[in-house]
């Protein structure tokens, strides 16, 4: 019998804005800029189609997109 994939379950779970911020920055590789509340609000506003549930995030759906977006945003700011 196959055991449940706890990492996958954790990644797909819908979580609050604050929980996503904590999880996103946890163990973030040093080459990626950390997220802030203001940056995540801007991301959510810019990418509103990614949010079917009003204020719910998932690491599976949003983390990579936020990483890419923040990295590109920081390059433009330099």
Walkthrough of the structure:
The model has no long low-confidence stretch (mean pLDDT 90). With 78 residues, the protein is an all-alpha fold. It contains four helices and no strands. It has helices spanning 6-12, 17-25, 37-46, 59-77.
Q: How many strands in all?
A: 0
**Structural class label:** mainly alpha
Strand content: under 5%
SSE series: HHHH
The biggest sheet amounts to:
none
Kindly provide the radius of gyration, computed on alpha-carbon positions and rounded to a whole number of angstroms: 13 Å
Head-to-tail CA distance between termini: 52 Å
Unreliable residue stretches: none
Number of H/I helices: 4
> If you average the pLDDT, what whole number results?
90
> What portion of residues is helical?
55-70%
Tell the overall outline. globular
Write the layout of secondary structure elements.
Elements: H1 6-12, H2 17-25, H3 37-46, H4 59-77
What are the defining features of this structure?
58% helix, 0% strand, mainly alpha, 78 residues
Brief sketch in words of this structure:
With 78 residues, the chain is mainly α.
């Amino acid at each position: 019998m196959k055991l449940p994939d706890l990492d996958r379950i954790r990644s797909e779970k819908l979580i609050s804005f604050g929980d996503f911020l904590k999880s996103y920055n946890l163990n973030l590789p040093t080459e990626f800029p950390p997220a802030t509340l203001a940056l995540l609000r801007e991301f959510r506003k810019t990418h509103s189609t990614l949010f079917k549930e009003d204020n719910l995030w998932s690491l599976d759906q949003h983390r990579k997109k936020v990483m890419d977006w923040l990295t590109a945003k920081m390059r433009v700011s330099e």
